TrEMBL record:
Entry protein name: tRNA-2-methylthio-N(6)-dimethylallyladenosine synthase
SUPFAM superfamilies the record matches: Radical SAM enzymes
GO MF term set: 4 iron, 4 sulfur cluster binding; metal ion binding; tRNA-2-methylthio-N(6)-dimethylallyladenosine(37) synthase activity
SMART domains assigned to the protein according to its UniProt record, in alphabetical order: Elp3
Annotated ranges, domain Radical SAM core: 124-385
Gene source species: Candidatus Woykebacteria bacterium RBG_13_40_15
Length: 387
């Protein structure tokens, strides 16, 4: 009997990469084997991203290849998973479902990532490093971002499941781990929410922790998070390096900074998205903090962690971003001296507030010009690093 083979194509962020690492054993459980190349596969899984229009377009572009593969092998199966399927499932109007069915008629199966789950042992790409998902989804609804509509509301993975995975990695002698979540440093806020009146949280080992109560932080009313406690627990496991992605500025508490300071095996690279260096753009983005608050946080991190390297994300050409507002971001880039910036051009995303309410009036040419200016300042020119 012919052994059916699968091939996975992954688009998008590290969370999607981690999801694909669990998709592989999920398919193997169903009797599939890994194909060495796409043309040897009987089943292609596309793990989709829709954070920008460009990412979505690449997926539509794969239809030609799939058509040829289906002509060659009549039993060839196309499975779609990831963010596009997440959005389809969550869209109660079914409009997005109809759009995808229409644009991608060759799809045989839509697989929601929740069906794969978070606890299936991953097939890691390397023996050195492991992604560990600690939370999924987001509650913040930045006005440009589709994530709350694709991955849904933020849900933290149970502490015991995370620590069980961490213990497996220790036994497998994995050296480096990266903890993942859309708001990785909000981990556990959903657990604490139900225990707020007690002001303490009991960990599965019986230890009671009293997370630092943050009432207002960078313009947001925050409840405490368990991330510093979790990070410290994982740091004790003697990995060579523990990294985490992506941290939001409003949950970057003093407690978290102290944990980083106390544990040299926690990565000194800190990714801290700003998105814009202009307060009125930030407000329209629903980002709440001000540039001044962000700068204060960076100064605090650098003073307490002198070898910290801080990277960021920036969106250029957000609806209505004037030349002056863009210049404010340029000015901030010169001041802050980020180690790296992931800069993207704004593109309206379905379901989001900015797509519904704001006019994407800045031309692609102008967005591209702004991107290049920032890229030259932050990512290309030799800069004096923090000591
Ligand atoms: S914090 Fe904002 S940008 Fe990040 S995933 Fe949530 S909504 Fe998107």
């Amino acid at each position: 009997m012919k052994r059916l083979k699968y091939f996975i194509i992954t688009f998008g962020c590290q969370q999607n990469k981690a999801d694909s690492e669990r998709l592989a054993p999920f398919l193997e459980k169903q009797g599939y084997f890994l194909a060495s190349s796409i043309d040897k596969a009987d089943c292609l899984v596309i793990n989709t991203c829709m954070v920008r229009q460009h990412a979505e377009d690449k997926i539509y572009g794969l239809q030609k290849v799939v058509k040829l593969l289906k002509e060659k092998n009549p039993n060839f199966k196309l499975i779609l998973t990831g963010c596009m399927v997440g959005a389809m499932v969550k869209d109660l109007t079914k409009k997005y479902y109809r759009k995808i069915k229409n644009r991608l008629p060759l799809v045989d199966q839509f697989l929601s990532i929740e069906e794969v789950g978070f606890d299936i042992p991953a097939r890691r790409e390397t023996k050195e490093h492991a992604w560990v998902v600690i939370s999924n989804g987001c509650n913040n609804f930045c006005s440009y971002c589709v994530v709350p509509y694709t991955r849904g509301r933020e849900i933290s993975r149970p502490w015991t499941d995370i620590m069980a995975e961490i213990d497996c990695l220790v036994r497998a002698k994995i050296k480096n781990v990266t903890l993942l979540g859309q708001n990785v440093n909000s981990y556990g806020a959903d657990f604490i929410k139900n225990n707020l009146e007690k002001r303490k949280y009991t960990l599965p080992d019986g230890k009671q922790v009293i997370p630092v109560m943050v009432k207002m932080s960078m313009g947001r009313k925050r409840i405490p998070t368990l991330f510093p406690v979790l990070l410290e627990e994982i740091a004790k496991k003697h990995f060579e390096k523990i990294s985490f992605l992506s941290a939001n500025p409003w949950d970057f508490s003093d407690e978290l900074i102290d944990v980083i300071v106390a544990n040299p095996n926690i990565d000194r690279y800190i990714h801290l998205p700003i998105q814009s260096g202009d307060n009125s753009v930030l407000k329209k983005m629903n980002r709440f903090y001000t540039v001044e608050e962000y700068k204060k946080l960076v100064t605090k991190i650098r003073s307490k962690i002198p070898n910290a390297k801080i990277g960021t994300d920036i969106i250029v050409g957000f609806p209505g971003e004037t030349e002056k507002q863009f210049e404010n971001t340029v000015q901030l880039a010169r001041e802050i001296d980020w180690s790296v910036a992931y800069i993207s051009m704004y593109s309206p995303r379905p379901f989001t507030a900015s797509a519904k309410n704001l006019n994407d009036g800045i031309s692609r040419k102008e967005k591209s010009r702004r991107l290049e200016i920032l890229d030259d300042i932050i990512n290309k020119l030799p800069r004096i690093k923090n000591p």
